[in-house]
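Ticket #4471: structure export looks truncated?
Reporter: QA, pipeline team
Priority: medium

Steps to reproduce: submit the single chain below to the structure queue and open the exported record.
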Amino acid sequence: MKRLISFWGLLALIISVTFNSCDKADDNDKVDICDVSNPAEDIPWLKNAIDDVKEDEYAYYVKAVYNGATVFYYGNCNPVVDYISIVQNCDGDNLGFTNEFYDDLTDISVIWKHENSKCDFQE
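Actual output as written to the record:
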């Protein structure tokens, strides 16, 4: 009888550890952010791009996920400005125009905006 209880206790422990391991693996499987903690500061090409527009109160940069990979694009909320935005990967490679990808982008979040931004992001 003790062996039967020990067997079921051991089985319950194994199942519990297995399910907890799966949850932790799922957390680790989340999309990386280019292996840096602050992309706006730690990715050289992105930092340079932000430096180019840092005085523009209408400019912002966005991080999103496309096909399981982190991507970035520029945005501008000035209603009188017509601009083209390009989706770029972590290495700064151009993937195409934002309007071509927008419906397939997920987890969209602003990673940089002017401290006195004129944009309304519904935060």
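Status: closed, not a bug. The export was complete when the record was re-opened. Leaving a note from the reviewer for reference: The first helix runs from residue 2 to 28.
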